[in-house]
Prior knowledge:
Strand order of the largest sheet: 1-2-3
Order of helices and strands: HEEE
Shape: elongated
Number of helices: 1
Structural class: alpha+beta
Distance between the termini: 73 Å
Number of strands: 3
Radius of gyration: 32 Å
Helix content: 10-25%
Strand content: 15-25%
Amino acid sequence: MRSVFYTSALGLCIALVAGCGRNDVQVYRVSKEDSKPVAQDQSGAMPAGHPDMGESAPRIKYTLPPSWQEAPRGQMRVASFRVTGKDSKQADVGVVADAWLDGKRFG
């Protein structure tokens, strides 16, 4: 029991001694870089080299079930639908193209 007490007391003393002299505050001054505003293209066009995201979005063929209605696509959706289910419950279904699957077929 004494060895645990002495070991703990020794550890506490070492921790106190090791922490002494570390109250000094150091201040650094760094000059700011001159930041010039970057001219931005206001046309809304993508930067050079960016793939075309406009009307070249993938097109899919589908037949809507009776309770489905076509909805506006949105930015990432290839197709978007509103579905009315039992008890007039609503759902939103979106189809998103995955670039990794581009050109691959299933089934």
